Amino acid sequence: MELLIIVIIAFLIGKAFGGRKNRQDDDWPDEPVQYEPPKKKKGCFARLISLLFKLFVTFILFVFIVSLLDDDTQPQATSPDIAPPPVVSNTFEETSSPTVAPTAIPTAAPTAEPATREDWVLRAAQEVYRDDLISVTWQEVDNQKDMIVIWCNMPDGFSNSSRRLLFMGDAKNMFKRVSELGNDGLIEYGSCYIVGRTTYLDNYGKEFDGNAMEIRLKEEDLSQIKWENMNSDMLSALASNYGTFGIHPLLRD
Known about the structure:
Blueprint: H1 2-17, H2 44-73, H3 117-129, E1 133-139, E2 147-153, H4 160-183, E3 191-201, E4 207-218, H5 219-222, H6 232-242, E5 244-247
Parallel strand pairs: 2-3
Antiparallel strand pairs: 1-2, 3-4, 4-5
């Protein structure tokens, strides 16, 4: 097979590049023929194009034949030996039941409702101030209802102005919670007083704690506030006119 292909390739190359035979004496006709002017030979460019075309055809045939040789010489893949599938029994063998009983998911115990006015206000203050809460006390006032006193740490901020705004935001939330407890009849109080504490440095560089801001409002004023329309400036103005409001000089701008 390989020899036949080589002979075919040699024949095609010979046909493509074989020149014209030289005319012998025997090839001349016995009788004179009519003279015809010689035909114009092809130019160099035309011969070059013809040569390239022959080379291209020869190359295509060569590649095709080589591919046939590769297909014939390539080893044939053999299918691997596949083991037969295991036989599955149709009978179900019951296994022993687990010895460990499943554990029940624990349920959170319901939060007990506060029983006293102190508990109600303390829970509200813890939800508002969280770790900044210092203490919650009730102070007796002559001829008036008791005053709620809440001590807290001043929140941190980038400036004195931001610290004041944060303190007033927490104070608003705390006043709202106290007002709601009073309106629901859960507590009775005369006023609510909130004091913010912070750390200062004296002239010698020593630290000391002191009051930074304070605000107090009475129960009759808190019960009338429309909280969704109240802001910090309105709350401080209300406390300045009808209660107590103060800022330490070192916390001012």
